[in-house]
Amino acid sequence: MARIVGAIATSHTPTIGFAFDGNKQNDPVWKPIFDAYEPIKAWLKEKKPDALFIVYNDHITSFFFDHYSPFVLGVGEEYKVADEGGGRRNLPPIKGHGKLARHIANHLVADEFDMSFFQDKDLDHGCFSPLSVLMDHDKGWPTPIVPLQMGVLQFPVPSAKRCWNLGKSLRAAIESYPEDLRVVLIGTGGLSHQVHGERCGFNNPPWDEKLVDLYENDPEALTRMTHAQHATLGGMESSEFIMWMVVRGALSAQVKRVHRSYYLPSMTAIVTAVYENLAEPMSAEDAARERARANRQLEGIEKLEGTYPFDLERSVGHYRLNKFLHELVVPEHRAAFINDLEPLMEKWELSEQERDLIRRRDWRGLMQYGAIFFVLEKMAAVCGVSNLHVYAHMRGQTLEDFQKTRNAQVVYGVGGQEAQKKVEESAGA
Ligand code: FE
Description:
Elements: E1 3-10, H1 14-21, H2 31-47, E2 51-56, E3 71-74, E4 78-79, E5 94-95, H3 98-110, E6 116-118, H4 125-134, E7 145-150, H5 160-175, E8 182-188, H6 205-217, H7 219-223, H8 227-234, H9 242-249, E9 255-263, E10 270-277, H10 284-294, H11 312-317, H12 319-326, H13 331-339, H14 341-347, H15 352-359, H16 363-369, H17 373-383, H18 387-394, H19 399-404, H20 417-426
Parallel strand pairs: 1-8, 2-7, 2-8, 3-6
Antiparallel strand pairs: 1-10, 3-7, 4-5, 9-10
Helix pairs in contact: 1-4, 3-5, 3-10, 5-9, 13-14, 16-18
Bound molecules: fe (iii) ion.
């Protein structure tokens, strides 16, 4: 079974990445940052984790207010460094531990946390700023990650209590993972700081000190604080501290602190700490029970013939094809699909099997392969055939025979008026 070895608490300010990229290791201003991370780096090397679970927040880089969610779990297999306006940092992409992530996803949802999930999104300094000083990465990153992105920038934001409770569920999720993985948790976020308004530049080192003491010894006291109380003591942006609470909730009540540092070079208090987990591992029986509970909602679904639940395995495994077909909502992509299909499929690096299924409009084959129906109805609209064509094909029937099984013999699709006309013509209506 997987084990939580320990946890790292760290700021994620861009200054860390800036100092690293500028080779400022020996610059007296920046040296304390590197001194703080050296022991953590050594600790990580010694513990040799198989996966890092990192809680961070995006800074309106890859996640914008057109769709903003509180708890967003990365379930993909690889993540690139994001361009935050000044070009990307020169860092290699990092592997995701997709299998562990998807196991955690099922568990958290079973515990009634309404998670959202991402893949194919770049990670910004919230994640890569600390990672770049925690691990050597010239030849690629040594350890895969599971990122949990938290929407802390647009209120309402989850309470510290909610994050703490999510941490408890995370602990059970990790401990019930069937492989013997060693997992390290990383909670990111600065302590006292405020970067906006006339109050910007606010810091409170004595409060930071007390906060880290409470975090270590009496974390539940912190779950009683509101965001306003937190902002009063630590500055508005320090409310991102709640990300640390997810991590603390996943650890044993007592922890062994092996490192702690504090440095305030500019706007944000850079705190680092390392805690070893003293939890008793979950028994094999309890782990099996936890897994069964996490999978209960879909238990038995495999007995339904001709039914393909679109779960995270399917979503991640066939993301490229679904994205290619989803893109049919864009007029230029649609036009290329109709007029220049082969070069378009080449450009998207579709596999030969995927190209063949699309060329032959093999609706059933596409479904079985991993396309969700709702991209197929878009493709049908573009191809000028109705949803009923797709249904009939999936059932292995002619349109006419399928129509006989319906109360009304109608055809329709999801296109606009133009597409609708084509659909009716193709059905001979
Ligand atoms: Fe931040």
